[in-house]
Design brief:
By secondary structure, this protein is an alpha/beta fold. The protein has 2 domains: 110 residues, Roll (Urease, subunit C, domain 1), CATH 2.30.40; 299 residues, Metal-dependent hydrolases (TIM Barrel, Alpha-Beta Barrel). The protein is 38% helix and 19% strand. The chain contains 15 helices and 18 strands. The strands form 3 sheets. Strands 1, 2, 3, 4, 5, 15, 16, 17 and 18 form a 9-stranded mixed β-sheet that branches. Helix 5 links the parallel strand 8 and strand 9. Helix 3 packs across helix 15. The chain is globular. The model has no long low-confidence stretch (mean pLDDT 94). It binds zinc ion. Zinc ion binds next to loops.
Length: 461
């Protein structure tokens, strides 16, 4: 079962509706023909069937077909530490949960955790994940484990290493040297280049978490290599205050001054912003990821989505990490993205279901610069798509967009293809032995919590 990827299929996938998220819009009684990892044709089921009478058909006239969801921001390195510290603010959570884990997290743990959480993501319709490794364990090359896990599962994605070397005064974790950090970036980049489906971004956990020396070395490397950046920006009010105290500038101004806006930059959160910040990032062509569940758990704030979209900034949706969400259920994040905006604006019309689903598909792809390959069901794009089956949640389909955003759950996700390979078939993972993975992860998670001194420590806070 695990270890080898399934073959690329030549098949017709049909549904009561195909939501292309492209120019063709929503097709009733539609279908998609995929072959050799590519979308060959999108149209009515009757037409595609007539043209290809002998091809196998997946799906029926009752389910829904959508592009694979793009999880535009998460941390698979947190896979083994969910369900702890949920009453902490971001700064406390970082110092008391994430940082103590850093020096104990090995590449093997990262790989096994990645496979485990990939199962959760695939089951919620994710085909692409933009990941940032947020732990630094000197000498371990642990970030490589995430890349290896994604390759093993057959998932498309981008990896980055968000090491910090300025970790505050309360932690005993020794920081990595600037040379060690830069070497790990280089090695991760080379390994990603050698993989078929995984790309690389230069990770910056936060600007404030890095020494001036590391910030400058990173900016140099991005300029030299043309590396795009993946970072967190303007997540909590404290970040704005500390940035002002350290640099007399707001975080987006500081990112610009360092040169990080000269390359494509994707910023998670972007909550605590002024109009001048929005204009500056928009002008530079930067993009944003909204992570509603993590923002609510940490009490961080509400991303001003309407203002970002009005400035023509590409916005994707992310789950954020397994330690700050704490789930990797993308369908939940999609629904929460809509609900959080509605309750914040006290206006149910502030965002509609189609707009939210677009952010989770084509919007996320645009934010990551991969809209030419994925994000919508259009001829010539890679065959990354999801078939939602007519479970009880989808028994009555009046408006297919609302049905996906407000009703669908992981149980509705029947089939998932990445690059034409079926990673979920009739609700069964084809590249992951799920029960065995859960067993192994359980032991590793206990051992990691024990080594990091977290066992039983955070649940009572
Ligand atoms: Zn994050």
């Amino acid at each position: 079962m695990a270890g080898t990827l399934p073959r690329r299929e030549s098949v017709i996938i049909r549904g009561a509706w195909v939501l292309t998220m492209g120019a063709a819009g929503a097709l009733e009684n539609g279908a998609v023909h995929i072959a050799d990892g590519v979308i060959r044709q999108v149209g009515s089921y009757a037409d595609l069937r007539r043209e290809h009478p002998t091809l196998p058909v997946v799906g029926d006239g009752f389910g829904l077909v959508i592009p694979g969801l793009v999880n535009a921001h998460t941390h698979l390195s947190e896979a083994l530490i969910p369900g702890m510290g949920s009453e902490l603010t971001l700064y406390e959570w970082g110092e008391r949960l994430v940082t103590p884990v850093a020096r104990h997290l090995t590449a093997e743990m990262a790989r096994k955790g990645t496979v485990l959480k990939a199962a959760e993501m695939i089951r919620s319709g994710v085909t692409f994940v933009n990941d940032m490794f947020v732990h630094s364990n000197p000498g371990s090359q642990a970030s490589m484990g995430v890349l290896e896990g994604l390759v093993e599962v057959g998932m498309r994605g981008m990896v980055s290493f968000g090491a910090e070397d300025s970790l505050g005064e309360t932690t005993e974790t020794p920081p990595m040297s600037v040379d060690e950090v830069m070497q790990e970036h280089q090695e991760l980049s080379s390994a990603a280049q050698a993989s078929e489906l995984v790309g690389f971004r230069y990770g910056i956990g936060t600007l404030l978490g890095q020494s001036d020396e590391l910030l400058e070395a990173g900016a140099d490397a991005c300029r030299t290599n043309g590396w795009p950046v993946h970072t967190h920006l303007c997540e909590v009010r404290e970040e704005i205050v500390h940035s002002s105290l350290r640099w007399s500038r707001r975080p987006i101004q500081q990112a610009d001054r360092l040169g990080f806006l000269d390359v494509p930059l994707i910023a998670a959160h972007a909550i605590w912003v002024r109009q001048s910040d929005i204009d500056q990032l928009a002008e530079a062509g930067g993009s944003v990821v909204h992570n509603p569940v993590a923002n609510m758990i940490l009490g961080a704030g509400v991303c001003p989505l309407a203002r970002w979209l009005a400035a023509d900034v590409s916005v994707g949706i992310g789950t954020d990490g397994a330690a700050s969400n704490d789930s990797q259920n993308m369908l939940e994040a999609v629904k929460m993205a809509a609900l959080l905006q509605k309750v914040h604006a006290l206006d149910p019309a502030v965002i509609n279901a189609r707009e939210v689903l677009e952010m989770a598909t084509l919007g996320g792809a645009r934010a990551l610069g991969i809209q030419g390959q994925v994000g919508s069901l259009e001829t010539g794009k890679r065959a990354d798509l999801v078939c939602l089956r007519p479970t009880v949640e989808l028994a009555a389909i009046h408006d297919p967009y609302q049905q996906v955003v407000y009703c669908a759950g992981p149980r509705s996700v029947g089939e998932v293809w990445v690059d034409g390979r079926r990673l979920l078939a009739d609700g069964h993972l084809t590249t992951i032995d799920e029960p065995a993975r859960i067993d192994r992860a359980r032991e590793l998670a206990r051992s990691l919590a024990r080594q990091a001194g977290l066992e039983g420590n955070l649940s009572r806070l």
